[in-house]
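Justification of computing resources. Each target in the renewal requires a structure prediction run like the one illustrated here; the chain below, 285 residues long, is used simply to show the kind of job we budget for.
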Amino acid sequence: MATETKEVEADTGSAVRERLYPFVVGARRTWKQFTQSKLGVMGLFIIAAISFIAVFAPYIAPHPLEWQAFGNNPTFQQASQLPHPPAFGDPFFAPLGTDHLGHGILTQLIYGSRTALFIGLAAGILSSLVGVPLGVISGYYSNTWVDEGIQRVVDVMYGLPFLPLVIVLVFINGVTTTNIILGIVAKSWLNNAIVVRGQVLSLSKRPFVEAAEASGASDFRIMWRHILPNVLPLGFIYLAQDAAFAILIQASLAFLGLADFTQVSWGRCSSGFRYRGTSTRRRGG
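Resulting structure tokens:
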């Protein structure tokens, strides 16, 4: 009885391995093609570094996020010294100085990596989830009404400027992190769709795709099992690019005052730098 049970378990394990083998081979091929792109590897390294800083922010930051130079209730003379420059030996030492409220700039930058990572990855993943499937569908059904419809939408969206479009969408829907991400995705998926479509136009003429069509495979199976694994490296490259660009866009929106200032972010730090320069000139004048 025990021998029969072991044989059944072995057969089940073999069936599972056989079913997962194509996905394992596709993942290895995707990783090999992805690592051939220096830009993609650099983007992956940057995302990994930001992820490390975001996870260990409480241990890396020199002060807690609520920390203020001179305490929570500085005197008028102490407050007039803010923003405070770096000064070794001070009990309120901040390596990059402080903002007009006395919060450490370096601490805000380190904790802001969490917001930047969330917005970057969310926008990058959503852009890939929209752009890559549309690019595959458009390339596979080239010269049809499906392809024409997708490409006309892309042409119209390309004619709209990126940052002003995001500003309008965020202003209409409300200044929240979710609306900022959706506003970025509304424009950033275009490059994914265009590049993936060009790659699919080349892949659709390959012998393995023609063999799948001759064997009677459905269009969905061909796109999912034969074409998509070969365009995933491009999708990962543009995901890293879109994530980095989304962080820059969010910082630009925050600098213009269109951000959720209840959360610390790199954009809020940049607006703090702007306020500091204005207040410094005002005192100097």
